[in-house]
């Protein structure tokens, strides 16, 4: 079982990827509030389950496709 700090670190890595994502015109895809709100869809249990199978980049990509 992952520790809370590992889950939090993973969550922050996903958030960083989401905040760095750009639209086609170069503008940020999300502001911080939008990115956090989107990421909050995933519970700590969801993140813990997916951590062994998905990189933060893959998780961010999945969230940005929804």
Descriptive report:
By secondary structure, the protein is an all-alpha fold. Helices cover 64% and strands 0% of the residues. The chain is built from four helices and no strands. Helix 1 packs across helix 4.
Major β-sheet, in short? none
Write down the overall mean pLDDT: 95
Distance between the termini: 28 Å
Poorly predicted regions: none
Strand-residue proportion: under 5%
Rg from Cα: 12 Å
Which outline best applies?
Answer: elongated
Order of helices and strands: HHHH
Fraction in helix: 55-70%
Overall number of strands? 0
Structural class: mainly alpha
Number of helices, counting only DSSP H or I runs of 4 residues or more:
4
How do the strands and helices of this protein lay out in sequence?
Blueprint (H helix, E strand, L loop, with lengths): L3 H17 L11 H8 L4 H7 L5 H10 L1
């Amino acid at each position: 079982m992952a520790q809370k700090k590992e889950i939090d670190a993973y969550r922050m890595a996903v958030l960083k990827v989401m905040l760095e994502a750009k639209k086609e015109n170069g503008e940020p895809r999300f502001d911080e509030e939008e990115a956090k709100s989107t990421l909050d869809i995933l519970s700590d249990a969801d993140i813990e389950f997916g951590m062994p199978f998905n990189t933060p980049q893959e998780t961010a990509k999945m969230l940005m496709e929804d």
